[in-house]
């Protein structure tokens, strides 16, 4: 499914999706978010957050109408990933924390995305943990059912 989308984009004169980003593409629902040793957000708050990856664009949304699955975009970032090393970088292009860069590690297995990251001026995390005082985020996302 993703490969044909990448090929179609290339045929239409649009840049093809880099192979490392193909598994990222889709809509993701937040399952857990830990920062600096503490779980973040209650269940309703986590349920309102969506990550949408289209090509190399990483978009964060908060769902404001759960019935219609409509929301407000919080930020858009340029995503780069190295699938062999399991690393990624984000540069926030608009919205909350515009201009900031983060880097981290990731793992995608089937419909689960694990991300562990911090500001780019700190050392990249080496494992999926967010110890107290680390300034690191550790998140788990699952591919959202988009009704298709």
What does the model show?
It is a single chain. Helices cover 10% and strands 49% of the residues. With 148 residues, it is mainly β. It has a single domain, classed as Lipocalin (Beta Barrel). It has an 8-stranded antiparallel beta barrel. 20% of the residues are buried. The N terminus is likely disordered.
Nutshell version of this structure?
10% of the residues lie in helices and 49% in strands. With 148 residues, it is mostly beta strands. The chain has a single domain (25-143), classed as Beta Barrel (Lipocalin).
Blueprint (SSEs and pairs):
Layout: H1 2-11, E1 26-35, E2 38-39, H2 43-47, E3 49-54, E4 57-65, E5 70-82, E6 87-95, E7 101-109, E8 112-119, E9 137-143
Antiparallel strand pairs: 1-2, 1-3, 1-9, 3-4, 4-5, 5-6, 6-7, 7-8, 8-9
